[in-house]
């Protein structure tokens, strides 16, 4: 072959090419980022619209529905989900993965512009933006100290945040437990009434008397002056002395009807670190950033920042997600290293030569390092999937080197000189090695281009596998022949240990030849045994459970706390403190960080606890045992719901991280609630469902203000004036800005009624408004106030009102079993006119297995095509591919014995297995054909080829098996996730190797008989080759 011949003749060329590949890989490795999983751009677009004070029903019908109607017509829309609450509407449009996110944003913007014709005229302009479901905090920082929380919050907002945002890779920084500074103007309703004033009079005074407008420019002969009208209020004293208006020639000042406070916006967020009040800062990296490097830089920056903070104030890391990423990637790298050591050890055991072992072992680092260059060229990162691909290939990339060296060594033992043996041995095996390598690479073509989220997720895995095996082939055909021609020697004087093992190999080959001869003489027996083994593997498969991604011990988990809708911040905080106490009392817990009122909506009835556990070696219980124990304890906290869940292993969408998300859709919200309640009650009665809840929020206490339009018209006031007065006095309204010259910042000025005059719904009736004649009337004259219950949030899914049921699985129940049970409940409990679907992980689970099965079928077809080309035969590929069903017995058996499940990881392991197991069959069938072409009869060729190929087959099989052993053991960080993949390959390779050595030769003879029968039936001459 050209490559091997050239490398032997021109060793410098071979060395330079190899060094170039390694250098390319080293440079690529240095530039690779680190991430937990591949960055996948999910095409999500959000449309957020606000209309102050509008009820959820109004937002749903008047805002959300018209927007959904328009965006639903855009090409490539997969799902539309929406939430309508008090004063806001958010529509999330999920596109199919083939849509470009930037063009999708433009399409949504165009459709929203059309929808605005039907929207209320007083809405704020809709905000249209990309939505990154991977945008989750990588770090949570806590600021604690002796200063008041408000003071520390200002430092965090105005000092720390800008410095952190300047760090490369940092995207968004959110503050929790902090209420922004605000100038509060407190109005006394009784004093306003006594002075015949309204809140609107105060608002107008600020509008006209707290302004700074440019005065233009004065130009003299040689100078130019800027004119500034300094009309803004500069201090709290100036605010209090602000003249509202004059009555009977006397000024009425703000201090006559209220007072001004340099305070904060309403407190709707609380944060604590280990039960100590704190200001929380969540660091969200930019999309595509090297999250580990971002975390390192932020932590390094904290050291400098703490030196500049006031005495007694400190910022520390309270929760660090990057630690698990670093640990997981590092441990996969360790699996690669350990697998390489084991593979090299196997080679020495078989070759019994230091020279031979070193020559072949060089293929491992050379191939893997070269792969890093391809990874960098493709824009990949060092993440869980790319590193896992390399760890799977540790024992594979050496295969080509083994079979090339073994064949060269055999020729040298036959008396050929090293140069001739290197050329002839490499050329003889090159075609088989190339076919086997491209079979592996070709298998991952359908994996790399699978549809759906999982297709994007495994794209980097497939490309990395292909790159590593192709690199190994190049190394095997260029470097190995050159090194063999210069350094490989046949030992004339062998040690006693070498002679002992050589005699052992000879005895093994002899016994194998006898056993194979028996199988060839009793082919029916082999057929029966093979059939029974295959039936047994199907039986095992039926009993295997299925899930999306195996749960792993990440030493961290989440607790969601939810009090009844309408609960106050203080009530929720009381429940949160009790849960915090229970969590911190656990010996396994290292830190907790708790927040209430997280996110833009600042819902005070919802809180989140981030639990960091001690390292696995420092605790006796696993993460999920800790979660199960805590789940029992928090049931004793009354007046709230507590959900305990893992961090989502793979971001696949959905409204929460729970693996089971079950949507019910239909026209009537009340009926949806009844259906959801029935299904949840049944789920709670069944074992294995825990933390069952829904997203329905239909019981929000509300005060309804009914305006008597006739009376309002008679009084000369309109609905807007009445609504504005209620908004100003009850909710508070921003009326101006205050400029702090020392900080060079502007803060909101908000007017509001004092607290003790807005404690009950009746207080609304006491608010006064001005009539066109200048008089005042009480709102009681034109309104009626009632208390009631209404929805806090209305959800839609795919244009229908929806209710989503969430649940965790426990007690050994897998996601696959949970989905089957939910399908059964849906048939029994969901009436006509209502439908259901799955969301989040459950939806991805159903889609992924369909795509993976399609990929497996396509991989088998591709392997057949490659083999048909190699053997120039339609029958011999079937012989080689018999290893595939034989491998399933070992793969399924290994999963069953270790208690594993069929997951996306074990399925990828099965697809990888289809490529690996045929390599041994190729070696056997290819050499048998070579001997027959030299004139040897069929049975003699089989009986000679199989023993000759026994040693390389065992070597490649055992190196592959031991190469994946560290992964199969699953002992390191995140090892539970990848263990199923390693175990499937381990068991499949073990079973297929043993069976292939006997079954494939037998089937080869059967296929040859069929070929001869076909030729005789067609009247063709016998002989003339072996291809059909």
Short description, anyone?
The chain is of the alpha+beta class and 1028 residues long.
Outline the secondary-structure elements:
Elements: H1 2-9, H2 11-31, E1 44-50, H3 56-71, E2 77-85, E3 88-95, H4 101-115, E4 127-131, E5 139-144, H5 149-165, E6 170-176, E7 181-187, H6 189-194, H7 199-209, E8 214-219, E9 224-228, H8 236-240, E10 243-247, E11 250-253, E12 258-264, E13 270-273, E14 276-277, E15 279-285, H9 291-308, E16 314-320, H10 322-351, H11 354-361, H12 363-377, H13 384-393, H14 399-413, H15 418-448, H16 452-487, H17 496-521, H18 523-543, E17 556-562, H19 569-584, E18 589-596, E19 606-613, H20 623-634, E20 641-645, E21 660-666, H21 669-685, E22 689-694, E23 700-707, H22 709-715, H23 719-731, E24 733-740, E25 745-753, E26 768-770, E27 776-778, E28 783-790, E29 793-797, E30 800-809, H24 815-829, E31 835-839, H25 841-871, H26 876-880, H27 883-897, H28 904-933, H29 938-969, H30 975-1017
Parallel strand pairs: 7-25
Antiparallel strand pairs: 1-3, 1-4, 2-3, 2-29, 5-15, 5-16, 6-15, 7-12, 8-9, 10-11, 13-14, 13-18, 17-19, 17-20, 18-19, 21-30, 21-31, 22-30, 23-28, 24-25, 26-27, 29-30
């Amino acid at each position: 072959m050209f490559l091997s011949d050239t490398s032997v003749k021109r060793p410098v060329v071979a060395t330079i090419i190899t060094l170039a590949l390694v250098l390319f890989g080293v440079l690529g490795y240095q530039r690779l980022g680190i991430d937990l999983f591949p960055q996948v751009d999910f095409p999500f677009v959000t449309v957020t619209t606000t209309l102050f004070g509008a009820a959820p029903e109004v937002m749903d019908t008047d805002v959300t529905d018209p927007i959904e109607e328009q965006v639903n017509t855009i090409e490539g829309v997969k799902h539309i989900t929406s939430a309508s609450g008090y004063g806001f509407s958010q529509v999330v449009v999920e596109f199919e993965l083939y849509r470009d996110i930037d063009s999708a944003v433009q399409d949504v913007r165009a459709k929203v512009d059309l929808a605005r014709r039907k929207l209320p005229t007083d809405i704020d302009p809709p905000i249209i933006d990309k939505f990154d479901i991977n945008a989750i905090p990588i770090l949570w920082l806590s600021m604690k100290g002796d200063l008041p929380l408000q003071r520390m919050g200002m430092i965090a907002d105005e000092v720390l945040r800008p410095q952190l945002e300047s760090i490369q890779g940092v995207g968004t920084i959110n503050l929790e437990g902090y209420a922004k500074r605000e100038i509060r103007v407190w109005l006394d309703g009784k004093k306003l009434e006594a002075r015949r004033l309204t809140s609107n009079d105060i608002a107008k005074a600020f509008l006209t008397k707290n302004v700074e407008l440019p005065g233009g420019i004065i130009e003299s002969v040689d100078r130019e002056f800027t004119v500034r009208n300094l009309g803004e209020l500069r201090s709290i004293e100036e605010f209090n002395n602000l003249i509202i208006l004059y009555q009977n020639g006397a000024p009425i000042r703000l201090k006559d009807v209220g007072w001004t406070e340099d305070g904060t916006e309403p407190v709707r967020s609380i944060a604590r670190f280990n039960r100590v009040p704190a200001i929380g800062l969540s660091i969200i990296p930019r999309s595509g950033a090297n999250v580990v490097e971002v975390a390192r830089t932020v932590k390094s920056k904290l050291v400098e920042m703490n030196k500049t903070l006031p005495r007694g104030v400190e910022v520390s890391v309270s929760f660090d997600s990057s630690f698990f990423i670093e640990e997981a990637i590092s441990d996969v790298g360790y699996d690669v290293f350990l697998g390489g050591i084991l593979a090299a050890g196997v080679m020495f055991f078989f070759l019994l030569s230091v020279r031979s072992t070193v020559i072949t072992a060089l293929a491992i680092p050379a191939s893997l390092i070269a792969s890093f260059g391809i990874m960098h060229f493709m824009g990949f990162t060092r993440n869980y999937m790319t590193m896992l691909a390399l760890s799977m290939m540790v024992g594979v990339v050496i295969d080509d080197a083994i079979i090339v060296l073994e064949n060269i060594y055999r020729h040298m033992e036959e008396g050929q000189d090293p140069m001739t043996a290197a050329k002839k041995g490499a050329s003889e095996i090159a075609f088989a090695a190339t076919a086997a390598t491209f079979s592996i690479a070709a298998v991952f073509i359908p994996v790399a281009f699978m549809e759906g989220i999982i297709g994007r997720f495994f794209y980097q895995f497939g490309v990395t596998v292909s790159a590593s095996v192709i690199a190994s082939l190049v190394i095997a055909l260029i470097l190995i022949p050159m090194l063999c021609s210069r350094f490989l020697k046949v030992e004339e004087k062998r040690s006693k240990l070498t002679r002992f093992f050589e005699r052992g190999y000879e005895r093994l080959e002899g016994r194998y030849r006898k056993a194979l001869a028996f199988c060839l003489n009793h082919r029916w027996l082999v057929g029966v045994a093979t059939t029974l083994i295959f039936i047994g593997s199907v039986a095992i498969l039926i009993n295997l459970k299925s899930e999306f991604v195996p749960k792993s011990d990440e030493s961290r988990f989440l607790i969601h706390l939810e009090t009844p809708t309408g609960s106050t911040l203080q009530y929720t905080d009381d429940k949160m403190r009790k849960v915090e106490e229970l969590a911190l009392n656990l010996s396994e817990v290292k830190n907790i960080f708790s927040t209430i009122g997280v996110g833009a909506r600042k819902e005070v009835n919802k809180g989140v606890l981030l639990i960091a556990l001690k390292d696995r070696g420092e605790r006796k219980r696993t993460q999920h045992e800790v979660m199960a124990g805590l789940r029992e304890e928090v049931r004793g906290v009354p007046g709230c719901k507590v959900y305990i869940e893992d961090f989502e292993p793979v971001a696949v969408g959905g409204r929460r991280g729970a693996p089971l998300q079950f949507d019910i859709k239909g026209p009537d919200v009340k009926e949806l609630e009844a259906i959801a309640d029935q299904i949840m009650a049944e789920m709670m009665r069944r074992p294995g469902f825990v933390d069952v809840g829904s997203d329905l929020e239909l019981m929000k206490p509300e005060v309804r203000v009914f305006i008597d339009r006739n009376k309002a018209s008679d009084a000369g006031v309109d609905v807007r004036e009445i609504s504005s007065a209620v908004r100003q006095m009850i909710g508070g309204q921003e009326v101006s800005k205050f400029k702090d010259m020392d900080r060079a910042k502007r803060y909101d000025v908000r007017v509001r009624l004092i607290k003790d005059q807005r404690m009950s719904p009746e207080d609304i009736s006491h608010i006064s408004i001005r009539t066109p004649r200048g008089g005042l009337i009480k709102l009681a004259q034109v309104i009626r106030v009632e208390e009631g219950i209404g929805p806090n949030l209305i959800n839609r899914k795919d244009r229908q009102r929806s209710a989503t049921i969430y649940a965790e699985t426990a007690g050994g129940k897998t996601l696959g079993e949970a989905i089957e049970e939910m399908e059964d409940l849906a048939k029994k409990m969901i009436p006509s006119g209502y439908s259901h679907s799955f969301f989040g992980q459950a939806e991805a689970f159903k889609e992924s297995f369909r795509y993976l099965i399609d990929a497996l079928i396509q991989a088998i077809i591709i392997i057949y095509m490659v083999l048909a080309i190699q053997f120039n035969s339609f029958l011999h590929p079937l012989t080689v591919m018999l290893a595939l069903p034989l491998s399933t017995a070992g793969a399924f058996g290994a999963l069953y014995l270790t208690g594993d499940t069929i997951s996306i990881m074990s399925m990828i392991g099965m697809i990888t297995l289809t490529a690996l197991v045929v390599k041994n069959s190729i070696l056997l069938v290819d050499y048998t054909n070579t001997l027959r072409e030299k004139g040897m009869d069929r049975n003699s060729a089989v009986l000679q080829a199989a023993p000759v190929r026994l040693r390389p087959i065992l070597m490649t099989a055992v190196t592959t098996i031991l190469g994946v052993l560290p992964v199969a053991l699953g002992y390191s960080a995140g090892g539970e996730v990848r263990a199923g993949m390693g175990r499937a390959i381990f068991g499949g390779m073990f079973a297929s190797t043993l069976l292939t050595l006997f079954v494939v030769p037998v089937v080869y003879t059967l296929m040859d008989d069929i070929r001869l029968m076909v030729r005789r039936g067609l009247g063709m001459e016998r002989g003339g080759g072996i291809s059909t």
